[in-house]
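In the lab's daily routine, each protein ends up as an entry in a very long ledger. A line of letters takes care of the sequence, but it says nothing directly about the fold. The three-dimensional part falls to structure tokens, numbers that each stand for a local backbone shape. The outcome of that step, for a single protein, is printed below.
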Amino acid sequence: MMTSQQTEQPYPFVDIYDEDEADRVFLMSKPTCFVILGKPGVGKKTLARKLAQIWKCTLVDALELIDENITAETEYGLKSKELLYQGQSIPEELLIKMLLNKIESPEVIHFGYVLCDFPSVSEEYMSIPEQIEMIRNAKLKPDFLINIKCPDYDLCQRVSGQRQHPETGQIYQREEWDPDIIEKRKKKRKEPRKTTEEEEEEEEEEEEEETSEAIADQLMLTEILPNLVHRPEDFLENIEDSVAVYKDIMLRPLEELMAEQDSQYLIELDGNKSAEELLATVIARLQSMGLRNGALITKLQSAEEEMLDGLENDELFRVLASYKLVAPRYRWRRSRWGRACPVALKCGEIVMGSTDYALGFLGKMYTISTEEAMKEFMLNPRPYLLPPMPLPPCKVLVFGPSLSGRSTLCGLVANHYQGKVLDMDVLLKTQYEQARIELIEETRNEATQTGINKVKEKLEVERMLQEQAAAFTQDITDKEQDDYEESLITDERSSVLPSVSTFTSQKERDAIKEEDENEEIASSQTAEQTESSGQPGILEVSSDHPEVQEMVQKAIEAAMLSPILLPSEMYADALEEAIVELSKTNKDRYPEAAEKGGWVVDNFPPLTEHWAALSERGLLPDIVICLKNAERNGRVLINRLYLASKEEVDAKIIKRLIDEALKKKQEEEETRRELQEMLRLQAEESAEDRESMDFLEHPSASESQSKIHSGAESGQIVQPTDSALTKEKEKSGESVETEGQLDEVQRSMDSKEQPKTESTEHLETEEKPQSEHEQLKSIASELV
């Protein structure tokens, strides 16, 4: 069979009255195609032209193809033009190539075609069976075969009476130009007619038609008839030869072709009838079969109408809906594409259409972006409207914090639109590793230099503190020495044994003088070393110092965990390269998929300079998804983060609690020591005050004490007096009182420390330190 007319519906339970389903069925249906057969000059081309105009399909004729290709300056048109300029005929091979190219064009795929004067009688390039087989195997097979039959005599008489106007190329039949026939029509119009009242209105209309015919006949006789010519192919003998050749060569293969055709799709017409009658017969047959002619595309706004670019979408479509109504009180409706251009969307881009290119098709409105896109849409809108369109091109970029479901969402979106996830961490893996190595090396150098400087500063501070401590000690020593000398002078005056005191003081003076000389020598040597080093007070510290290495190690560990951010150009280059590679395989996603789109970007930095780099390269996504958790202060994300590293977080929490407990205990111990020191100082001050008071009240006791000390130094035993023993007892009484105060402080501290944390008790049980009460008693005994 040559045709594929009634295909079985794949979805038998689909509602055929659903509007979207009806549009889908129409867009996926095959357009109606016709082939008109018949003897030469039988009127095939005239019927084909009228049928193409009424049924909204494309006429495919040899002369039309030549003119069209020459006008469009195609490859075939330029060759044909060159041959015609040389006075040669166009070869059959070139005509067949132009015919096949026309049948496979977008316009014919949407509207269908009417083919006439084919197969050709000439077998210069292909035989007639080969031509018929070529039509059978065409992309769009013909649905209807229309055969115009006419007796040979009638055909020869009609064709031989044809005349052509040389300027317009229009062909006139004998009834239109023969003066005798025109005169007979005039006489017939002048004859009176007896009619009734009901026929008066019809007579008036006929009179108007006759008047117009009379004017046309007069124009024919005066202006057209003198210019008409008789073509050689219309000579009687030539037409008879053409009919004979047709019968000998072509009639038999065509009869076989028509015998194979389904009789329902074979239309046979009487060639003696006029072209209008033949057309009416064909249209009635097509309508009886419930066929639908091609849907035209209407341009809604012309250049003379007002501009509508400034209107919002709702107002814009409301105004466009009233232009060039589909039918009275039937306005255009909005399509699922909205204002997006269907042609651009099919190519993988979302571009808003312009009102200058607003079109109406199948009762809906579409806005096209450019004039070239409008031409493509008007030739064949089916590829741009068929499912799965309108489908977004899938240019998506997803932002979001860690564990927000960003990567999962990217995978789901890519799977839904049959796209691919472009993970920037994977695309830039090599660059990340190189940047990490460079960062570690840079961090190592910086940390080494910083560590050396810090260690030097630390050592310098320690040296300065030591010098300050030595100076402070020296000051104290000098002060004590001065006090001691003053006391010796006082003792000399009051001493019973002046010779012993004098000997001792002289010896001590010699020792002090010797120490001063030694210190001066050491200081002079230190100054000489400092001057010889060139940098006074600066010590040499290398990178192998333990403290420096510890700082470097900590800095490297922090650098290993810190995020790496590459320059924006690297991200743009990697993404562009990945998109170019993806576009090569994008057409395999689904039938007639676009080259552009089909990608979902993950792990892209949400920074201004990186976004500007994408804008410069033309890589901006159509959709940006930002994931955030604004409810309950991000509790969901915090919970996910905790569950992801539960063991590590729990260990850090326990460590923090233990550190806090130890710190609290240390602070309490320091507070206790400070309090004890304060009480000790108070006790010492009170003891000194009492000694001074006793000295003022009983100077003899102090003289006896000095005698005892001087006697001990000289090796003599001096017995203390009763007053001295009394003083010692008083001092011991003061020590007992101080110990009592410390016991009271200890009891108060013990009462405060009763509520303790479990972690502190655990640590106390492991360490088992000495009880604080015993420590305080030992301190008190030392103070006594």
